[in-house]
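Sample 1 of the test manifest.
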Amino acid sequence: MFRNVAELVQIAESQNKKISEIMIEQEMQVSGRTREEIFNQMEKSLQVMEEAVERGIRGVTSHSGLTGGDAVLLQKYIEKGNFLSGETILDAVSKAVATNEVNAAMGTICATPTAGSAGVVPGTLFAVKNKLNPTREEMVHFLFTSGAFGFVVANNAFISGAAGGCQAEVGSAAGMAAAAIVEMAGGSPSQCAHAMAITLKNMLGLVCDPVAGLVEVPCIKRNAMGAANAMVAADMALAGVTSRIPCDEVIDAMFKIGQRMPTALKETAEGGLADTPTGRRLEAKIFGMPLKSDE
Amino acid sequence: MKYKSVFDIIGPVMIGPSSSHTAGAARIGRVARTIFGKEPKWVKIYFYGSFAKTYKGHGTDVAIVGGLLDFDTFDERIISAMEIAKEREMLVEFIESDEVPDHPNTAKIIIGDDTSELELVGISIGGGKIEITELNGFELKLSGHHPAIIVVHNDRFGAIAAVANILSKYEINIGHMDVSRKEKGKMALMTIEVDQNIGQDIIDEIQALPIVTQVARIVE
């Protein structure tokens, strides 16, 4: 059983296997279930993700009315073809947004690793799909690779905003996605680890400060940028750029930063964007009264 | 290691918006319902920490009631759990507590009907994963992700062996076990997580042991 990224990479490279394969083998060992059962369960999650992306792209609105419809705007913008960054990256951003808009509307999603960060992994997957034309099986493997890296973070640090801030939540999701993109694009296990490290380094310190306590503002746009971050970091790793700080140490740094982060910035809606004048005004409008005073 | 399966990370499939505050809450409610073994007539739900501060925004309230109505994390009826509870004449009360809990996402559930009552404390540790930390005043550790039996028994020698013997006879493997008591020699609680679902016949056999007061089970 691998306990950290270094072990995961070492096992994969010494056996000349992909990270996804190591994750499947470990799952078989731990659960006692067959490869087919495990694969089928993951394929069902893939199906849920696909449906959420499609639904979000058609357009949804949350119950609070705060969010929805941005995935539609982005898809229309991409179609016009005058974008500045790039088609795949914008597609990833729009599909990450789509998923989280569905989540905010109390729709059905698959947590990856959480619901608040559920957009990044499927967002990048369904964008990269159009570029790399993977088989359905390779798409399921993308989820196992993401899962392997998320597994390490969850066991050595944390994956929820309430425990470690947004760096733990969208930060983990983005790192997981970056690693999985690298594997799908043909990169080595070690390049997967560098992609995760580069991504997570750039999300360190990010707080969890949802307006009115809703998983909407800024969560949806943080998923958008998490997806963009993952795409760029994956390209950097595939280009041969390495992280000077090893992935496990970046995860450990994230953990220590999260422990020192004040409670007001860990999903309590007491600080950060939640405590801005507009944040408080929106909160009062949604609930008919401010939930908390500014004192 | 807290997380053992890749499906703790990629999953659960759930109704939004929050894995810890929605899916986790639904799971805590559902474990309470399962141990209670029937639909409660009234429920009191105490929220602590981040749960107390943000439960309205995350739908933690509808999710936990959905769980108490026996809905799974992906059951779309969670959205209208309050209306369904009303139709079924379940009285629901929420209490926001200022007490500082050990874990930021903590809920205490007290449920009952005309004949019995149950009190349970659960925490939602992230990504939809939960732990039940207290049951009727007993400390315990239960994930709700595996089939399990919960046995209230007299705190006396031989109790564990008697229950284990029955499980052994039916070739049931114990994955995790926990024993807890409030006071030496009085009541004690055994929590046993197992690898396969346990049939009613086995539950009846354990219940028939003179040392055992009550048995409840959690089916996967």
